[in-house]
Each structure stands twice: as structure tokens, then as C-alpha cells.
Design a protein that fits this description.
This protein is mainly α. The chain has helices at 2-29, 54-72, 78-104, 112-130, 158-179, 185-206, 223-244, 253-270, 277-280, 282-300, 312-318, 323-351, and strands spanning 145-147, 151-155. The protein contains twelve helices and two strands. Strand 1 (145-147) and strand 2 (151-155) form a beta hairpin.
Length: 352
């Protein structure tokens, strides 16, 4: 538990103290956000706000995790390092996208195909590596079984596991990316979901088969280290939220949103709660579905729309809702989804 506390505290300090330094650096360099002309007109006032703040989230997370292990003399684990690799790799893809935007002074960075290929390369590498590194009980960071709140009896072959991981990573990273459209929205929702993974990791460790053998025990490799990674991410996001809350002094950019989405997918895969992520990250799912439905309906009806604008948060902006009102109400939805997910996770253990 000391590792969890150190990781979250150190990541928070690095993030909250380092972000203003990054803001000053980015302002001097002129690396400001480019705003689409076809978006809500209220967003035009945000033009020039420093972006690429996700670099601080990634840096704070890495410092929190590795410093925690150094202080507590804990050994690094394959599961923890691989989730951090996934986060950092996707963050690099997002950074390239952000850099192209600010350097070319236009709202388009990487082409959609190039971005997907970058995400896929990182996800596939994560999946292949995750099927290796068994511990003394033969458990690898990624299971070959499909999981809900723990592994099910449905076993997937190596190719299907890699494809499933690929779908999860791309879906979740793009889901957080779509949610990151209002000040603090994606950051606050991510904090809640990371808190859930801290609790899940700690619970799985306490009820792990290596600690308390029995019918209800969890067969998860490195559950406590998964909690430490989640705690570092939680602390980093908390510190960043101080500066990202409305009116935002800095945006995380694709650097942060892709990294956070990848981290969420990685934590769910490593903790054997893959399908539970649909509920724990319910807000990201809802917003992703709003885009899918809008595009699908537009194509099927040759120009008609369900929403005034997608993603969903911009629809409510065009209805006249204030930005802070939307963010707080969407946070409430995210919190309810997280609470429901944790309830199902604990309920499954109680029922056996």
C-alpha cells in the first residue's frame, strides 16, 4: 500500500508543479491550440492556449511509478512496465499529431490512416509482449482468456488475443480523444476510472490466489503493481486538472488523450476486467457511440443528423448549455458508471 500512496503523491506533485513551467515554455514557443472553424464559436476564445500538456501527465506518471519502486525497494513487474509502455507509445503517436498541428498552424495533424497505424503498431507490440514473461505460477501479463470481472472459460488463440487487444486499445484511446473537447472533461473522467483500477488492483492483490487461496481468489499477475500504475496515473491527472479546469491554461492534446486511453485499456487487460471497462469507462463509450451514430445516420440518410454536432458534448453546447455545466453533468455520469462497475466487480466476488 505504501507504493500506491507514494506513486500517487509523487505523480501529483510533479504534475501540479511542473505544468505551470510547461505552460510558460509552450507560450514562449508559441505552441498553441488550433481551433476548427466549424466547431462551436465559443471555442474560438481558446485559440492559442498551450497544448501538448499530455507530456506532463506521462512524465509525472513515470516519475511517480519508478520513484515509488525506488523508495519502497519493490521490484519492477512485467505488467506494470508493459502498461506504461502502452501509455508512452500511444502518447508518442499523439505527440507527433500535436506537433504537426502546431508547427504547421492548422487543425489537421497526422492523417487518420497514419494515426491508426501508429496506434496499431504500439498495441500489437504490447499484446505480443504481454503474452510472454510468465511468473512462477505461469501467469502472463495478458491472459489468453476473455475476461469480464475475472477470466472466463472462453479461451482465445494467440491471433485472436492480439486482435482483441488491438480493438480495445484503439477504441479506448480514441474514446478518450473524442471526450477531450471541453476543459477538464476527459481529465476528470479519467481520474475517476483510474481510482476504480486502484481499488480493483488492491482488492485482487488481497484476494489473490498467492495470498488467500480459495474458490474466489483471483489469478492475476502483479495486481498490486497494476494498482501502483493506476495510482500514478490518478495523481498525474489530478495535478494536471488543476490547470486544465475551466478556463483551461493548458490542453493535454492528443498526446495526453491517446496515452490515457491506452493506459485504461492496458489496466483493464492486465487486471482481467476487459469487458468491465465498457462500464467503468462508460462516459467514453457514450461519447464514442454518439459519433458513430451521427456519422452512420448522416451517410444512411444522405445528409440528415441526429445531433446538432458530434461528439455529444458539442451537441449540448449548441443547445445553449454552459461549458462548466456540461462538464460537471458529464462527470456525474462518469462517476455513476464507475460506481456501477465497481458494484458489479464486488458483487461478482460476493456471489462467487
Amino acid at each position: 500500500m505504501k507504493g500506491v500512496l507514494f506513486a500517487s503523491s509523487l505523480a501529483f506533485l510533479v504534475s501540479i508543479l511542473g505544468t505551470p513551467l510547461a505552460i510558460r515554455f509552450l507560450v514562449r514557443r508559441g505552441y498553441g491550440q488550433i481551433i476548427r472553424d466549424d466547431g462551436p464559436t465559443s471555442h474560438h476564445t481558446k485559440r492559442g492556449t498551450p497544448t501538448m500538456g499530455g507530456v506532463l501527465i506521462i512524465l509525472a506518471t513515470l516519475v511517480g511509478y519508478f520513484a515509488s519502486h525506488l523508495i519502497t525497494s519493490r521490484h519492477l513487474t512485467a505488467s506494470g512496465v508493459l502498461v506504461l509502455f502502452l501509455m508512452s507509445g500511444l502518447g508518442l503517436v499523439g505527440f507527433i499529431d500535436d506537433w504537426l498541428k502546431v508547427s504547421r498552424q492548422r487543425s489537421m495533424g497526422l492523417r487518420a490512416r497514419s494515426k491508426i497505424l501508429g496506434q496499431a503498431a504500439v498495441a500489437i507490440t504490447f499484446a505480443i509482449l504481454g503474452l510472454h514473461f510468465p511468473d512462477d505460477r505461469g501467469l502472463t501479463p495478458i491472459s489468453s482468456h476473455l475476461s469480464i470481472v475475472r477470466d472466463t472459460s472462453l479461451k482465445l488463440g494467440t491471433i485472436l488475443v492480439v486482435l482483441w487487444v488491438l480493438v480495445m486499445v484503439i477504441a479506448e484511446s480514441n474514446g478518450v480523444n473524442l471526450t477531450d473537447g471541453l476543459d477538464g472533461l476527459a481529465t476528470g473522467a479519467s481520474v475517476m476510472t483510474f481510482v476504480a483500477f486502484v481499488l480493483i488492483g488492491v482488492w485482487e492483490f488481497g484476494q489473490g490466489c498467492a495470498v488467500t487461496p480459495g474458490l474466489k481468489c483471483y489469478e492475476v499477475r502483479d495486481p498490486l503493481d497494476i494498482a501502483i500504475v493506476a495510482a500514478a496515473l490518478m495523481g498525474a491527472c489530478f495535478g494536471f486538472l488543476w490547470w486544465n479546469a475551466s478556463p483551461a491554461k493548458i490542453f493535454m492534446g492528443d498526446t495526453g488523450s491517446l496515452a490515457l486511453g491506452g493506459a485504461l485499456a492496458g489496466l483493464a487487460i492486465a487486471s482481467r476486467t476487459e469487458l468491465l471497462l465498457l462500464l467503468l469507462g462508460g462516459l467514453f463509450l457514450i461519447i464514442s457511440l454518439s459519433v458513430i451514430l451521427q456519422v452512420g445516420f448522416f451517410k444512411l440518410t444522405k445528409g440528415r443528423r441526429i445531433l446538432r454536432m458530434a461528439p455529444l458534448q458539442h451537441h449540448f453546447e449548441l443547445l445553449g448549455w454552459g461549458e462548466v455545466t456540461i462538464v460537471i453533468r458529464f462527470w456525474i455520469i462518469a462517476g455513476l458508471c464507475v460506481a456501477a462497475g465497481l458494484g458489479i466487480f464486488y458483487g461478482a466476488w460476493v456471489s462467487g
